[in-house]
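> forwarded from #structure-qc
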């Protein structure tokens, strides 16, 4: 049986990105890998990935979950570095 690390290892994503997508979309991690891979195929998808993580941050702040907000903020910095917004 494949582990989540197997799915992530075969993708262009990192674990923190997959986790952020899974939280945002309320889906299991393997499905989040597929969603993330599709997002990375277009400039619009990259923008959507940025939006998802930003919304994860906002949702965590609204819920008073500052630990998750900080985790998602670190993920956003990572996303911005690895998948910059298109010009």
């Amino acid at each position: 049986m494949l582990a989540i690390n197997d799915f992530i290892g075969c993708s262009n994503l990192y674990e923190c990105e997959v986790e952020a997508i899974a939280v945002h979309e309320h889906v299991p991690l393997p499905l989040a890998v597929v969603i993330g891979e599709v997002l990375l195929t277009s400039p619009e998808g990259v923008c959507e990935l940025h939006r998802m993580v930003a919304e994860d941050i906002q949702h965590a702040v609204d819920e008073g979950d500052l630990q998750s907000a900080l985790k998602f903020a670190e993920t956003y910095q990572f996303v911005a570095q690895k998948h910059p917004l298109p010009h």
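QC bot note: The helical segments are 4-9, 15-25, 29-39, 43-62, 66-82. The mean pLDDT is 92.
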